[in-house]
Amino acid sequence: xxxxxxNKEIRDGDNPDLTEERKTATFxxxxxxxxxxxxxxxxxxxxxxxxxxxxxxxxxxxxxxPFLSRNEKILESTRKVTALNEHLPRLIxxxxxxxxxxxxxxxxxxxxNPLALHHSLFIPPxxxxxxxEQHEKWLGRAKRREIIGCYxxxxxxxxxxxxxxxxxxxxxxxxxEFILHTPTINALKWWPGALGKSxxxxxxxxxxxxxxxxxxxxxxxxxxxxxxxxEPLPGIAVGDIGxxxxxxxxxxxxxxxxxxxxxxxxxxxxxxxxxVDGTYVRPPHDKMNYAGMIRVRSRMAAEQGTFMAQALxxxxxxxxxxxxxxxxxxxQEVKVLDYQTxxxxxxxxxARSYAFIFCGFETIQKYETLQNEMNSGNVSLMAxxxxxxxxxxxxxxxxxGEGIEQARMACGGHGYSMxxxxxxxxxxxxxxCTYEGENMVMLLQLARYLVKSVExxxxxxxxxxGPMVAYLAYPDIKVDLVTGPEAYVKMFQHxxxxxxxxxxxxxxxxxxxxxxxxxxxxxxxxxxxxxSRLHTRLYIxxxxxxxxxxxxxxxxxxxxxxxxxxxxxxxxxxVASYALEDGFMSSTQxxxxxxQLYSSLEKxxxxxxxxxxxxxxxxxxxxxxxxNFLFQVLGRRDGHVYQNLFEWAKSSxxxxxxxxxxxxxxxxxxxxxxxx
Length: 676
Ligand SMILES: CCCCCCCCCC/C=C\CCCCCCCCCC(=O)SCCNC(=O)CCNC(=O)[C@H](O)C(C)(C)COP(=O)(O)OP(=O)(O)OC[C@H]1O[C@@H](n2cnc3c(N)ncnc32)[C@H](O)[C@@H]1OP(=O)(O)O
Ligand SMILES: Cc1cc2nc3c(=O)[nH]c(=O)nc-3n(C[C@H](O)[C@H](O)[C@H](O)COP(=O)(O)OP(=O)(O)OC[C@H]3O[C@@H](n4cnc5c(N)ncnc54)[C@H](O)[C@@H]3O)c2cc1C
Hints:
Elements: H1 16-24, H2 29-37, H3 40-54, H4 70-91, H5 97-108, H6 116-129, H7 132-143, E1 149-152, E2 168-172, E3 177-181, E4 189-190, E5 201-210, E6 213-223, E7 236-240, E8 253-257, E9 260-263, E10 273-274, E11 280-281, H8 291-298, H9 300-321, H10 340-375, H11 382-410, H12 412-416, H13 422-430, H14 439-458, H15 485-512, H16 517-523, H17 525-549, H18 554-574, H19 576-581, H20 587-604, H21 608-613, H22 641-650, H23 661-675
Parallel strand pairs: 1-5, 2-5
Antiparallel strand pairs: 2-3, 3-9, 4-8, 5-6, 7-8, 10-11
Helix pairs in contact: 2-3, 3-5, 4-5, 6-7, 6-8, 8-11, 9-10, 9-11, 9-13, 10-11, 10-17, 10-18, 10-20, 11-13, 11-14, 11-17, 14-15, 14-17, 15-16, 15-17, 15-18, 17-18, 18-20
The structure holds ligand LE4PLURH and flavin-adenine dinucleotide.
Residues 117, 121, 151-154, 158-160, 191-193, 247, 252, 431, 434-438, 440-441, 444 line the site of flavin-adenine dinucleotide.
């Protein structure tokens, strides 16, 4: 197989409709990939990795995954991930997390696998919260995969409110051990990925109790299964929680402790400690133990952006080969991509994918700065990044869900088939609204920060506002949108500022009327979450503009400017009512935004296929290749969907026999009986 990524290069046998699309593009997809992934080297490495993977048959799915049972899915994902591990040192730079993420998502796909969280949720907290001595003890073993781990925080009864986790770790002065205990059924750990059947270690989050005083959630390294037999250790109850909406190649699990003892040295103690005599050594920041969650959230914008991009690649390519209905020319049906409604469905979501990826790379860098600062004892950046990533995580997951669902509908009936792969992408991505902090809960975390910032501005201390919220103190000056992106930013700033102030004032009025602080907060919560969303969407817009400004290549800059303008107009239109309400936006401006939006759709149209080709997902990654094996088929780069859909249907286990037992056992007797 030849892997070809240059949009202008035409491959023999490709669907001519797609070939035509690639010819009309005004830019080079390899160059665009450099912008998406950050550099020529990073984009090239991805291509090289995809190429290398495509040449190793054992890394491909051996069967279409939707036809497998849960056990078969777990077996298949484990087969692939262990085979992959054998090849990894040859295929990627083992110290490069992005390369690791890329190759895993290519080979494993969205079904998950028993090692996914080992790398993304078990090793990172060990790195962040473990001391040098603890790294010495466990990190090498974890990295070599001598042990497999997971992150066990959420319980049956509590996920969002970590302070109320019921699993206890009581320090025993006499034995210098922690006694882990699950006092009630609600306290069972519930959800951790790879806990159910695969892990033999876990980073467990439990409330630390010393001399009957509760010091809140802390992280402990816990061995849960025997390294030889893989049986649960005495005092441990562990198992799988059953099938989920997606991610069924992974074994999310439950875990209970019956007075299970671990050594004092198993408290991850880089930033806090319990001395032999039970003295508690505080961390430099109250929420230091939550740092790992900031890390995961900081990666979610880029992650979710690529999830949406995959669904869009499938939907846009399919829309370019699907012909149905007529426009002017009645002799040939049109590509459904030519319908304005189809473009309106798909193109703003393409823009959001780019926006999320650009924003995501910024937040990942911000987290790396935070981590370096934390390592040298400076925790002053934590509050800002916590607020920012709480908002971003919530907005991108929700909008990604919307975008993927639009992609599914854009594929009509075939989008509803699992052959499209979109339902699997959706099921996985939409989980992001819940995991790593339920969206409403996280929006309310950002709202705390916004309310405090508004209060500072109200107290006449705008100088104390960080750069992210400085606009909350800006004066209102009317803007002319014709002047370009800066005017859009100012309009958005006004909207966001006004909503933050309105919500804060409402909150203050409630308290002044005698309502308690917590109750007043709850009575303003919807308004507060609106403020958080607006603030976050403004931030995403600004990162998009910054990124486009930084581009030197003219052909790339032009198409990304079209995409950015589409984003600006789509976003502003979506929230226009906030600015119409106080007359900051006129109805003429509203009409202008709509017209700009429609003209952006037209400008994007010739580049649509190449904009999604630029993500350079391989057919394997989209589960769309049908070489020696049968896979999902809708997003194929070559566009040959119909014959492959037929192959897919033929491979259904139901079609392996002409007459099913359901017919012989039930339908046939029913029909016979009816004849009597
Ligand atoms: C390399 C190889 C890779 C292989 C990859 C394979 C890839 C395969 C393909 C990919 C396919 C799919 C990928 C899908 C992956 C799925 C992964 C799923 C992972 C899910 C993991 C989890 O969900 S783990 C559990 C997460 N849980 C949560 O997030 C819980 C949410 N709750 C909280 O965080 C907290 O309870 C809270 C923040 C909401 C509240 O905490 P608390 O009650 O303690 O605080 P208060 O509200 O009272 O606030 C007090 C002040 O503290 C401030 N605060 C709070 N948190 C922080 C913080 N983190 N940092 C700084 N400050 C913080 C808060 O702001 C308050 O401040 P003030 O207002 O100033 O008082
Ligand atoms: C696919 C997946 C993988 C996961 N992996 C892991 C893992 O590896 N390790 C792990 O420890 N956990 C994991 N989790 C658990 C996950 O982190 C929690 O489910 C998540 O944090 C939400 O908590 P919850 O389930 O308690 O939701 P709840 O808090 O019970 O949410 C229910 C509803 O209550 C609302 N609500 C709750 N509190 C408030 C509030 N203060 N104000 C307003 N509304 C509120 C929410 O908005 C929501 O609408 C995973 C979950 C999923 C879905």
